[in-house]
Write a structure and sequence with these properties.
about 45% helix; 4 domains; Rossmann fold; binds magnesium ion; binds adenosine-5'-triphosphate; alpha/beta; five-stranded parallel beta sheet; Beta-Lactamase; Helix Hairpins
Length: about 475
């Protein structure tokens, strides 16, 4: 459509700009002529530069055949009326007010277009941020606990597509509950952020598929709109590895300090105790075993022996020196352990069984130390098992092929859930005559070999300890 403009001032410039921005699908707009009685008007030079016809008298426009539309932009009503009267019937005309409506509409659509472009840009940045850069689990949650959005890291962990989870409640998805979280293990950081309007952080303890503890650090950050919280960004991070590492370090530090303390006092106590023991036994020799004093002395002997056991264990602890490693056949060590503990087992009518993998590689270990670790596990298993029960020793190559697993399992009473995290602590015991050092020593010995020890237990069903000893490269000679 060819356009002629009457009036080359400010309105003309706005109109030209609006036209240059417009893209109409089936309409090509082209300004072919401009008329203004002032030849210095704002757009005259621009018109001439672009080869647009310029005339000082708008009457020249009515004679032309190449004009489809005349736009009056002088703001003078009389000029428009004059145009309406003189123009050819086939030529359309509109005045500066209609023109203004046109460029306003155009401006709005330009702003909209810009906003849409900005939205697309923001959305793609947001997607990159939450799905590609963010390794943690992220959810955006409404104040009514509904999921507004979540990242792919989290949705794939949950086994869904993000859109299948949007709109559902966060507690339903994360905790399979029908109400928001609460309690010591599950304080709700979202609730706190909604209450205080400030970011909040907490740690949740979950159970993994194998009953293991998983720790999640959860932080919530509010999003405000007009002073109101409209959503909360919740980021959760699996910190199980960090917590376990911290625990191990604390355990190690405890072991070191107890070891030092033990080394200091054990020898001092051993001598007087030997004196007490031998004196009590000597007096017993002169007495008849029915004598009541004989029995009192027996109590002294028994209790002194118990003290000696504690001191011996403490000394074992203190002796946690560097292992002197040699190539060893783990199956041989297991068989020797069975031989050393079979009397105790037989005494309680407990069967000792074994299932040892063939062709295991030899491993570099301190035989005495691994033996001691296994005896501790075997004795615990026998102590926890009733007559008629069974303790089984298994060896195998770990599925990774990089470690040998030694498994000691029993059909005994099991370990209470609340005790499980404490059993490797020095002095933790549930037995009347226990020192609580057996597992602490075992743990220390296995760690010194670069290995790990885990426990799985169910009350009333039994307990399984798994030791993993690494096979270092170059040590894979099969015996
Ligand atoms: N196989 C097992 N079955 C059930 N509970 C076990 C088993 N092994 C260990 N425990 C629990 O772990 C605790 C700590 O074991 P640990 O060997 O360190 O000390 P203890 O056996 O009590 O004392 P000590 O080894 O000095 O005789 C035990 O008291 C017991 O409650
Ligand atoms: Mg023990």
């Amino acid at each position: 459509m060819n356009i002629a403009i009457v009036g080359a001032g400010r309105r003309c410039r706005a109109f030209l700009e609006a036209i240059s921005r417009c893209t109409f699908e089936d309409l090509e707009l082209k300004v072919v002529a401009i008329a203004d009685k002032n030849e210095d008007a704002l757009c005259v030079r621009q018109a001439l530069k672009h080869g647009i016809l310029f005339t000082k008298d708008y009457n020249d426009l009515f004679e032309r055949n190449d004009i489809d539309l005349i736009v009056e932009l002088t703001g003078d009503r009389q000029v428009f009326n004059d145009i309406l009267q003189k123009k050819k019937k086939s030529v359309r005309a509109f005045d500066h007010r209609t023109a203004q409506l046109f460029w306003e509409l155009n401006r709005i659509s330009a702003v909209q277009e810009r906003t849409e472009q900005e939205l697309v840009k923001a959305k793609s940045l947001y997607n990159i941020f939450i799905n590609e850069l963010m390794e943690e689990d992220l959810m955006i949650i409404s104040p009514s606990y509904q999921i507004l959005d979540l990242n792919e890291t989290l949705s794939s962990k949950l086994g869904f597509k993000p859109k299948e989870l949007i709109g559902r409640y966060c507690y339903e998805i994360s905790h399979h509950q029908d109400a928001p979280c609460e309690g010591r293990d599950h304080p709700c950081p979202l609730r706190q952020t909604l209450r205080t309007g400030k970011p909040s952080q907490t740690t949740h303890v979950h159970r993994g598929p194998k009953g293991n503890e998983l720790f999640y650090s959860i932080s919530c950050h509010p999003i405000f709109e007009d002073g109101e919280i409209v959503a909360v960004v919740e980021i959760s991070k699996d910190i199980t590895k960090d917590i376990n590492m911290q625990r191990r370090m604390m355990q190690q530090q405890k072991l070191v300090s107890i070891g030092r303390l033990a080394a200091g006092i054990a020898h001092e106590i051993n001598n007087p105790m030997t004196t007490i023991l031998t004196t009590a036994m000597l007096i017993q020799e002169d007495l008849d075993s029915d004598d009541p004093i004989y029995k009192e002395l027996q109590t002294i002997v028994d209790e002194t022996l118990r003290c000696r056991k504690i001191v011996d264990n403490l000394l074992d602890f203190a002796r946690q020196t560097k292992p002197s490693k040699e190539k060893n056949d783990i199956n041989k060590i297991v068989m020797e352990t069975i031989n050393l503990t079979k009397k105790e087992a037989a005494f309680k009518d407990i069967r000792l069984g074994y299932d040892l993998a063939e062709n295991l590689p030899l491993v570099h270990v301190d035989k005495g130390q691994i033996q001691q670790a296994m005896i501790n596990l075997a004795i615990n298993a026998i102590e926890a098992t009733e007559g008629g029960g069974k303790v089984t020793f298994t060896t195998r190559l770990a599925s990774s092929g990089e470690a040998i697993e030694i498994i000691v399992s029993d059909t005994g009473k099991g370990i209470a859930e609340e005790d499980t995290p404490r059993i490797f602590e020095p002095f933790f015991t549930t037995k009347e005559t226990g020192t609580g050092l057996g597992l602490a020593i075992t743990h220390g010995l296995i760690e010194q070999h670069g290995g790990t020890i885990d426990v799985k237990s169910r009350m009333g069903e039994g307990t399984t300890f798994t030791i993993r000893l690494p096979i270092k490269k170059g040590e894979e000679d099969v015996h």
